[in-house]
Amino acid sequence: MADPVLSVQDLTTSFRVDGQWRSVVRDVSFDIGPQETVAVVGESGSGKSVTAMSIMRLLPPGNARSTGRIEFEGEDLLAGPLEQMQAIRGNRIGMIFQEPMTSLNPVLKIGSQITEVLRQHRGLDGAEAEAEAVRLLDRVRIPSAAARLGEYPMNFSGGMRQRVVIAIALACAPRLLIADEPTTALDVTIQAQILELIKTLQEEEGMSVLFITHDMGVVAEISDRTVVMYRGEVVEKATTEAIFREARHPYSRALLSAVPQLGAMAGQDRPLRFPRVDMATGEIAPPPPTADTVRVNEPPVLKVDNLVTRFPVRKGILRRVVGRIHAVEDISFELRQGETLSLVGESGCGKSTTGRSLIRLEEPSGGTVGMDGHDVRGAGHSELTKIRRDVQMIFQDPFESLNPRIRIGEAIAEPMIVHGLVSRREAPARVADLLERVGLSGEMMQRFPHEFSGGQRQRICIARALALEPKLIVADESVSALDVSVKAQVINLMLDLQERYGLGYLFISHDMAVVERISHRVAVMYLGEIVEIGPRAAVFETPQHPYTRKLIAAVPVADPSRRRRRVVAGDEIRSPYRPADYVAPKRLYREVGEGHFVQIHESEAAA
Amino acid sequence: MSGYLFSRLLQTLVTLFVMSVLVFGGLHMVGNPVDVLLSPTATPAERLEVIRSFGLDQPVWVQYGIFLKNALSGDLGNSFVYNQPALHLILQRMPATLELAAAALVMALALGLPLGVYAGLRPNGILAKSIMAFSILGFSLPTFWIGLVMIMVFAVQLGWLPSSGRGDTVDVFGVPLSLFTLDGLAHIALPAFNLALFKISLVIRITRAGVLETMQLDFVRFARAKGLPEGRIVRIHVLKNTLIPLITVIGLELGSLIAFAVVTETIFAWPGMGKLIIDSIAVLDRPVILAYLMITVVMFSLINLAVDILYSIVDPRVRLEGN
């Protein structure tokens, strides 16, 4: 290999915690060659981001220190004074971060945030700098770039902001781009666009890329070589093909086996658990098959007909309704006990509003919701209480859905006591039982939420939902915020519980690969409408609607040998905002297979 | 924008109306100005004459009706004591108070901002800790006591600065101001600093908290990764975000500076509105009290309007809309 652009040798980074130095990254070494892409992959706390920050020396100098060598084009970055980094950062090494929403200063114009880099490193001024900024925005494919220089970040969508951030990072044609989880916060079709953009720009510029991610699918798509980190250490490094073909370290194997792979379910007609990996030996135990849980002979527990939820948008002194957000528009579906129906779609498609409308956390504007024979929309206060007992929700963020000042035992007991299921005296025994059922121990009930990890907290939320013996659980992005291996465990747990209690799940998610694992049936939502609904195998293997196909095509394939250049449409996610006098067209569906319906396109419907 | 201004105007009018009802009713309930104003030796006939001339013989709602009718044509009534229009009395004293408040505000910002930014950037340094200790003193020591100590030190012992009055004034557009003469500046220095002390401490604390918080945000990290010098990051990226909460607080505080400069004006014998209102309350000079409170309402509304407009300039996410 030619001389590496970046060579990290024995990097150890420590933080000062309560006066003690604690190492969070230990003896990390890797090289990045010219025009090469190296992925550093690991779960939260693995030290991958700290490694990236150490290279740029962005950690707070008083509370963090790094030892070892970081050679960038032959120069040791760790040796010199901190000021020397100013000439390197943003100039010879560009960096982009995870959150495009917060990486840009909200009160400064986009133009000035780009030109300040050009002024600093390239000595451009005034009109020159502005012309160059327009060129940069053009290069990251932002339409009508010149007009947008005067706008603020709030006028840009997440994907567009990440493009601006990339434009800034590449403003000085750096030799190396460090990308720290650049697509994690983005929707899947937008993620595909950004990955494609990074690849194209890399070829055009001939730069090297250090790509930090937790997503093995993204790794397979983009990197030439891969470094796997676990608890602050490098456990394996090899070419990406080798890692995916024959990972040697047990942790790499565990990580890979936990990665949901789109298409891995071909030929299966039921949901499938994730395989378990023995962390000592690296042996992979095949998952036990799931039982057939769907109670086809009973009437559906949930029946939704023509549900509509709209939010008025008011303007002016008289607060006149000038338009409406058509969050949920004329959707119908059924759900049986023991069945998992997934609602998939991108941000703003109305999938969460659908879940919330079912138990009137949002008041629907039309349609009917039948829950176990009760009419939810017509229910009075006491009937609604009874309905809400049968439908429990689990939310995305396990950190925010538990009150930090309430012991978890009380948090789980509270709904049971409120609904009069148990008395205060009997509660502890019941809570202990519930905790054990979700794989925790009964002694933990005295602890507070901050004493648990994210995965454990999500288990607690599940235990709390189970406490009322619901018939249906609405899981709103419940595993999206979890690490890959924890996500696999929680999904396995959900499948176990479905088998034991015949729970129905309405699984709301943007993650196509997870949806493929867990669902019996899938409904694809777009702009508040269901565009396609059917058995999982049919929707994934023979998708009919163009939007379903686009969604599936955008999911990164966790297999480097199947890597392909995709033609990615550069369009944005559209908004379901409509003017006040808009009349939603009546949608028709065509049955293309057994239980597999697809929305008929307007032109077809007219014919 | 015009819809916004319109709804703001409406709000102010409603507030003025409610305020006038409350104050009118409240003043009617406490004491009788005639008892305070009239000498004890006055005959019953004189007494009745005074009551009639003040219009106090009418039922209270009739009195209020007359007040309202006159107020709509710009007449807020005559002072019982000076027998001059109350509005005129107040407007005469207003420049002195506004001048004092403005000087105090400038001091609060000129000292508070840099000290606060410094304390926010080096929160653990000795100097930063001293600044914070000073700000606690500024918060907790009573204004009148500090005023007295300052007079003792700078006026009595060192003899550097005068201790009372406004000094020489020049007329600027017909308004007498002391900011433009050396003697005037010497006179305003002590009272303005006395009035500013609390505000300086407040500005320091808010700025420090804002800087500390903003320095942790992602865009500051990204600005560092862009290779920008630390100076630019603080001046452009951090300061503009810190100004947002500061503007709100400063707006509210400016109102209170003007309305409640009473203590400082009393200690330094500053001929402003504060002194007038205290005297008027003592003798139950109802028209002056009422007019003063009405003017305060208008002033607060104007300041709030200015704050909102400033806000929308500093923070592009804020849009001014009528509601």
UniProtKB/TrEMBL annotation, chain A:
One of its GO terms (molecular function) is ATP binding. It comes from the Bacteria. It is an enzyme of class 7 (translocase). It holds the Pfam family ABC_tran. Keywords: ATP-binding, Cell inner membrane, Cell membrane, Hydrolase, Membrane, Nucleotide-binding, Repeat, Translocase, Transport. Residues 6-256, 302-552 form the ABC transporter domain. Signal peptide: none annotated. It is found in: Cell inner membrane. InterPro entries: AAA+_ATPase, ABC_transp_ATP-bind, ABC_transporter-like_ATP-bd, ABC_transporter-like_CS, Oligopep_ABC_C, P-loop_NTPase. Its EC number is 7.4.2.10. It catalyses: glutathione(out) + ATP + H2O = glutathione(in) + ADP + phosphate + H(+). Its main location: membrane. Part of the ABC transporter complex GsiABCD involved in glutathione import. Responsible for energy coupling to the transport system. The complex is composed of two ATP-binding proteins (GsiA), two transmembrane proteins (GsiC and GsiD) and a solute-binding protein (GsiB). Belongs to the ABC transporter superfamily. Glutathione importer (TC 3.A.1.5.11) family. This is Glutathione import ATP-binding protein GsiA. The lineage of its organism: Bacteria, Pseudomonadati, Pseudomonadota, Alphaproteobacteria, Rhodobacterales.
TrEMBL record, chain B:
Belongs to the binding-protein-dependent transport system permease family. It comes from the Bacteria. It comes from Rhodovulum kholense. It is a multi-pass membrane protein. It is found in: Cell membrane. It holds the Pfam family BPD_transp_1_N. This is Peptide/nickel transport system permease protein. The chain crosses the membrane at residues 12-31, 100-121, 133-157, 177-198, 242-269, 289-311. PROSITE patterns: ABC_TM1. GO terms for cellular component: plasma membrane. Residues 94-311 form the ABC transmembrane type-1 domain. GO terms for biological process: transmembrane transport. InterPro entries: BPD_transp_1_N, MetI-like, MetI-like_sf. Keywords: Cell membrane, Membrane, Transmembrane, Transmembrane helix, Transport.
